[in-house]
Specification:
This protein has about 280 residues and is mostly beta strands. The protein has 2 domains: about 140 residues, no CATH class; about 120 residues, abc- transporter (atp binding component) like domain (Coagulation Factor XIII, Chain A, domain 1), CATH 2.70.50. About 5% of the residues lie in helices and about 50% in strands. It has 2 helices and 24 strands. Strands 5, 6, 8, 9, 10, 12, 13 and 14 form an 8-stranded mixed sheet that branches. A 6-stranded mixed sheet has the order 1-2-23-18-19-24, with no helix packed on it. Strands 15, 16, 17, 20, 21 and 22 form a 6-stranded antiparallel sheet that branches. The protein is elongated, with a radius of gyration of 23 Å.
């Protein structure tokens, strides 16, 4: 899971993440039949060349698969096929087919997967599921979770001690709830001091072993909450600027959420500004 810094007055908070550059990934055409079909994927988040959507996060839940159909003709149709994680079931049709009208035609399908899903496009004769005239390469769409701050989060600074309490809400697909809710969370913190005014925000946060993170509290079959608490000394008079973060590592190989591999979460130190954390 990812987090992203948000500046708030004299402190830098960090929550939310994977709000990344919009991008496009593409695969070349394949000659599996009489018709050539290309495919590319586009979403709000392109991470290390992977197209990513965010589960139930407004405006970030969908991706568009599009491409060219070359060598087709009227009386044919393009059908989108999907194979969700763990990629053992056969590809199955999803959505409504697109009618082919000529020898060169663009197509597009909008998808909203709940977990990582592979897609391909097949061209067949209309009404004939067995006569495949062309198939695109496979394109995968990854799915991330986006933690958000919940009600009741607070910060209290009665010098010389500050106390921060953050309620972190996570929405998850029902079938992935057990895996995600059982994850270990890593809290991060850093603070800069100044004798004059407010100092700049920290550029890095460090794993904070004195902070506490509660076990997941179930709110519904698709949502849970963890509470993060920090306690630190700011002295009697000095200006300060803090930053914090909290994350749980991706479990892509277990439940098909996040990205393959390790992406910083759990490291001793991470940058406040990052591309992806999981």
């Amino acid at each position: 899971m990812r987090v992203r810094p948000i500046a708030r007055g004299g402190a830098a908070l960090a929550l939310a993440g994977c709000l990344l550059a919009t991008g496009l990934t593409a695969a070349s055409a394949t000659a599996s039949g009489q018709v050539s079909v290309t495919i590319s994927a586009r979403s709000h988040a392109l991470v290390y060349g992977h197209t990513l959507v965010v589960y139930r996060y407004p405006k970030w839940t969908t991706a568009v698969l599009s491409g060219d159909i070359i060598g087709g003709s009227a009386g044919q149709q393009a059908t989108l096929l999907a194979q969700p994680f763990p990629f053992v079931s056969p590809f199955a049709p999803t959505g409504s087919p697109v009618s082919v009208s000529g020898s060169s035609q663009l197509y597009s399908f909008t998808v909203q997967p709940d977990i990582a899903t592979k897609y391909e496009v097949q061209v067949t004769k209309t009404g004939d599921a067995g006569d495949v005239l062309g198939t695109s390469p496979v394109q995968i769409i990854y799915v991330s979770l986006q933690p958000v701050l919940g009600a009741g989060s607070s910060k209290s600074c009665t010098r010389p001690v500050c106390q921060l309490t953050y309620h972190v809400l996570v929405k998850v697909p029902p079938l992935s709830y057990s895996t995600e809710a059982a994850k270990h969370w890593f809290p991060y913190f850093a603070i800069n001091f100044s004798t004059v005014g407010t100092p700049p925000a920290p550029k890095y946060v460090t794993l904070d072993r004195s902070a506490s993170v509660t076990a997941a509290q179930r709110l519904s079959r698709t949502e849970y909450e963890v509470t993060v608490r920090y306690l630190y000394n700011v002295g009697p008079t000095m200006g300060f600027h803090w930053a914090w973060n909290v994350c749980a590592r991706d479990a892509y190989l277990t439940d098909g959420l996040g990205l393959p591999g390790h992406h910083g979460c759990g490291n001793q130190r991470i940058p406040v500004k990052f591309r992806y954390l999981g």
